[in-house]
Structures are given as C-alpha cells and as structure tokens.
Amino acid sequence: MGKINLVGILGLGIFGSTIAKELSESGVEIIACDLDEKNVDRLDGYLTVGSVGDFTDIDYMRNLGFAQCDAIVISTGTNLEASVLGVINAKELGINNIICKVKNKTNRKVLEALGVNTLVQPEKESGVQIARRMIHNTIEEIINLDDNTSLVEFRAPEEWVGKSLTSLNTRQRYDINIIGIRKRRREALTTTFPAGYIIQADDIYVAIANTDKFEKADYLHEIR
C-alpha cells in the first residue's frame, strides 16, 4: 500500500469514527458520510469533508469527491446490501483499495468475491489497527512491551539498500536497536550479523524501539 493522503469513510459508527480520528490525527485528510447527522457533527474537526447522505448513490459519492481518495473504508458491517453497493460504487469511481467491516462469515465470503482488499472485525480495536496499517510505509508488526517501548518488525526502506548498518547509525538516528534480520517474510530470524552488514532489498528487521518515535518517523518517510 502506498502513502495514504486522502481517505473516504462510508459510515461513521464506532468503527468508522475510530478510523477517522486515528487517520486525521496522523495528518491524513478524510471525506466521510453517514445517514445520521449527529454522527457527522460529532466528528467536526476531524473531517476535511463531512456530509449527511447515502453512499449507495454513485452520483452522491462522485459529487462529494470520493473519486479522489487513495482508499475507501466501508464501515456499515451490519448491512450487507449497503456494503456491496459501497464496494461497487467505489470500484466504479476507480478506487480499488477498499477496507470493509464485516459482521459474519457469510458477509466475508460475499465481499471477498467482490475483491475487497481488507476485511476486518470487530469494532474499535480493529479500527485503530487498520488505520495504523494504512498510514505506515515499512512497519510489518508492532508488539508493545510497555507504554513507551515496542518490539518492531519492519521492512528495509529503499533508501537503506546498499548501505551498511554502521553507516545508518540506527540507534542514534531513530532510537532503535536492531536485534535480528529476516531475508524474507516468515523466514528464520538471524540474530548474529556483522556491524557492517550491507542492506538488501527484501530485508526485514526486528528491533527494540521507542514506539512513538519510530511510528512518527515511518509515517513521515524519515526512515532513510
């Protein structure tokens, strides 16, 4: 997934509003709609464009600017028909990066058949996780060790390729201590490597890091 600058959110219940807040606080612009005016109003300050309306109407979506979005989040998981129409409309507007909330296995099968990228459940926690996944460029996984420190698995940024770990000086520049390297996803972790190890294009790193500093650096494309 490339860098996300503008996201459309269809439905502003718990899931949709959680994603809207998380993305907005990370600098992503949001276009959102909901049938309930109260849901739109309570997100005032988070939405670039907020509207009361029906996203099953393709003309409404087009006029509101959803075609400009980098991704669409469909959060009305209890209404399969609405979710299906939202997917169809998003694809018609040229948006193929689609995230859907699902209620059950039957809904999941239908939306998978429509080619939805990501299907998530349940509510608030998944909303936070999917928002973070959308904005991060290199992070594969984060495990919180305490309030400030995490075990982070991340891909080698393009700017690192061909450089040595010594020259990158990751501990000083990013406050991360690399403890292991994988050559590819799911391969065994190598914990013994030279300080002058040369970064390869497919490398994945495991590190102990300051959570806030690392996430901010990743989002702002500062890992280089």
Automatic annotation (TrEMBL):
It holds the Pfam family TrkA_C. One of its GO terms (biological process) is potassium ion transport. Residues 137-223 form the RCK C-terminal domain. Gene3D superfamilies: NAD(P)-binding Rossmann-like Domain (3.40.50.720), Regulator of K+ conductance, C-terminal domain (3.30.70.1450). Signal peptide: none annotated. InterPro entries: NAD(P)-bd_dom_sf, RCK_C, RCK_C_sf, RCK_N, Trk_Ktr_HKT_K-transport. GO terms for molecular function: monoatomic cation transmembrane transporter activity. PANTHER family: KTR SYSTEM POTASSIUM UPTAKE PROTEIN C (PTHR43833:SF7), POTASSIUM CHANNEL PROTEIN 2-RELATED-RELATED (PTHR43833). This is Potassium transporter Trk. It comes from Aerococcus viridans.
